[in-house]
Amino acid sequence: MNRFTFKGLLAGIVLACAFGQGASAAEISGVKLEDTIKVAGKDLKLNGYGMRQKFVAKVYVTALYLPEKSKSFPEIMKMDGPRRVSLVLMRDLTSDDFGDAFMNGLNNNLNNDEKSKIVSQISKFGEMFGLLQGLKKGDVLHLDWIPGTGTQCEFNGKKIGEVVPDLLFYNAILRIWMGERPVDAGLKNALLSAK
Questions:
Q1: Which residues are in the Chalcone isomerase domain (predicted)?
Q2: CA within 20 to 30 Å of 103's CA: 39, 97, 122, 126, which one?
Q3: pTM of the model
Q4: Cβ distance 173 to 191 under 8 Å?
């Protein structure tokens, strides 16, 4: 490679890095989403994102972050490494409304045998929703899977609730949005777009 070509390549890399730092990969309804984030010290990539709507009302923006992009939900459930689902509220919700929607999502995607294996963990999660006074427009909820630790929730930058250790539970949460009977089929397709 001659000197001129090498300098041009180097300049291109420097410019790409400068513009890439802190740049959002996407924006939806004013919510900016980062292309990569760190969870448990590992880089995760934005796999997909979309809006949860109920009738015409915008409820929340959802983003899925993974170690590697994938369009296959069975593959995502088997992935090593951390994972994150982020929710950004687009309207005010009571903690009861949010908790009920969460339970409906689980009930629609798990059979009784599957639920019986994680019933105590579902109960712990329900207690966490009870700790929230309510959710306001702009609030951010992260649902993280951290290998060797479990499911950790973060609300507006603060860890909440107990860590739930079983991977079965985290994958059950993912099924709310990406299971056979997702809360919103369009949102499922958006989260699995792996663009």
A1: 25-192
A2: 39
A3: 0.85
A4: no
